[in-house]
Design brief:
Elements: E1 2-7, E2 11-16, E3 22-25, H1 34-42, H2 45-50, E4 56-61, H3 67-80, E5 85-90, H4 91-99, E6 105-110, E7 114-119, E8 124-125, H5 133-136, H6 142-155, H7 160-170, H8 174-182, H9 187-192, H10 197-200, H11 204-223, E9 233-237, H12 239-243, H13 245-254, E10 258-263, H14 267-280
Parallel strand pairs: 1-4, 4-5, 6-9, 9-10
Antiparallel strand pairs: 1-2, 2-3, 6-7, 7-8
Helix pairs in contact: 1-3, 4-14, 11-13
Length: 281
């Protein structure tokens, strides 16, 4: 049985043929040791049910950006799936596999975090350093929009109806926000949790403008840095891209780009890809 995983900072989606989607927390090696990853896997009834049947695992995850961090994930998986053949790679490669249509393209991730690369079917080209995290990068990601909303809330720059909505819905205070951001682990996940305000707050014009500005920042820094960016489709994976596809298409047009595939659940296409590869072997 082939098992594939698409892991962001918030959650990991696991899928095998004929099975239901299994979810665990995001297994980013920036935040978790091998033992911590193993303990999280042990909590999953769904993974326990197929544990002995899995012969091959393809894991694509955020934070898997060096041999050391790759090994952290590998060792955690190997402890839980001792007999499986395990492959660990960056979530960017998973996004490329899920969206590639046979032609050179730019691929972006817009989920809890964000990233982008150019892909030709074999080699990933980052051009300049990407994936700098929620403090130095992650333009137009869930954590980016959550940070913008919390910042505007604290400065009292939100429209009154949205300010009242956030105050009532989340029982926010300055002290609670600062503690969660600066003292609790996984501040990026905490901030990304507020991205749903983009679709639920009453001040729709304000939210649409915030989304458009975030997408423009993403294209400014993460897309047009690639030579020939306006001659290739730009594909996306991730919930932010999916929920705001209309705004994403508008901004892509502003930057003379063609919006390609937008896939909120790339794990399905990743599984299809590896099943095809297995048949060729």
């Amino acid at each position: 049985m082939i098992l594939v995983a698409d892991s962001g900072s918030t959650k990991t989606s696991w899928l095998a043929r004929g099975g239901e989607m299994i979810h665990t927390i995001g297994l980013n090696p920036f935040y978790y040791t091998s033992d911590a990853i193993y303990r999280e896997l042990m909590k999953s009834d769904g993974l326990h049910a197929i544990r002995e049947k899995v012969t091959q695992i393809w894991f694509y995850g955020s934070g898997v950006s060096s041999p050391e961090r790759t090994d952290i994930v590998y060792q955690g998986l190997k402890k839980f799936f001792p007999t499986a053949d395990i492959h660990v790679d960056h979530d960017m490669m998973g996004a490329c596999i899920a969206t590639y249509d046979g032609h050179p393209c730019i691929v972006g991730i817009l989920g809890t975090g964000s990233n982008a690369c150019m892909y030709d079917g074999g080699r990933i080209d980052y051009t300049i350093q990407r994936g700098m995290g929620y403090i130095l990068g992650d333009e137009a990601s869930g954590s980016y929009f959550g940070r913008k909303l919390l910042q505007a809330f604290l400065y009292k720059e939100l429209p009154q109806a949205t300010y009242d909505f956030m105050l009532k819905t989340y029982d926010l205070t300055k002290e609670k926000i600062l503690w969660a951001v600066y003292n609790e682990p996984h501040a990026n996940v905490y901030m990304a949790g507020f991205a749903m305000v983009l679709t639920t707050a009453p001040d729709r014009d304000y939210m649409v403008q915030l989304v458009l500005d975030g997408f423009r920042e993403f294209f400014e820094h993460d897309v047009q840095c690639f030579a020939g960016y306006d001659n290739m489709p730009v594909h996306f994976v991730g919930s932010i891209a999916y929920h705001f596809r209309r705004e994403l298409e508008q901004v892509a047009h502003e930057y003379r780009c063609t919006l390609g595939a937008v896939d909120p659940q790339p794990v399905y296409r990743i599984l299809e890809y590896h099943e095809r590869q297995a048949l060729k072997a």
